[in-house]
Amino acid sequence: MPSKKTYGALAAVAVAAGTMAVATTTVAGAGTAPTGERRPDLPGRQLAFDRTATYPVFQNRPKGEDPATPTVAEISTVSDDGRTLIYTDALARRIGFLDISDPGRPRGLGTLSLTALGDAEDEPTSVTVVGPYVLVVVNTSAGYTTPSGRLDVIRLADRERVRSFDLGGQPDSIAISHDRRYAAIAIENERDEEATPAGGEEGDLPQAPGGFVQLVDLTGGAPTGWRTRKVALTNPDGSALTALTAAGLTAPTDPEPEYVSINDRDQLAVTLQENNGVVLVDLPTGRITKVFGAGTATVHGVDTDDDGDINLTGSITDVPREPDAVAWIDDRYLATANEGDWRGGSRGWSIFDSRTGKVAWDAGNTFERLAVRYGFVNEDRSGKKGTEPEGVAVAEFHGTRYAFVGSERSNFVAVYDLSRPTSPVFQQVLPATNGPEGLLPIPSRNLLAVSSEEDDASVNVRASVTLYQLGKGTPSFPTIVSEPTIGGGTPIGWGALGALSAVPGRSHLLYSVTDAAYTPTRILTVDPTREPARITAELTVRAADGSPVGYDAEGIFARPQGGFWLAVEGAAGAGNQLVRLDSAGVTRQVVALPAEVAAGLGKQGFEGVTATTDSRGREVLWAALQREVAGDPTGVVRLGRYDVTTGTWSWYGYRLESTSTPGDWIGLSEITVVGDRLAVIERDKLNGPAATLKRIYTVELPRTPAAPGPLKVLPKTLAHDVLPDLRATHGWTQEKLEGLTVAGDGQVYAITDNDAVQDATGETVFLRLGTDRKVFGTRH
Question: Where is the Choice-of-anchor I domain (predicted)?
Answer without folding.
Answer: 345-427
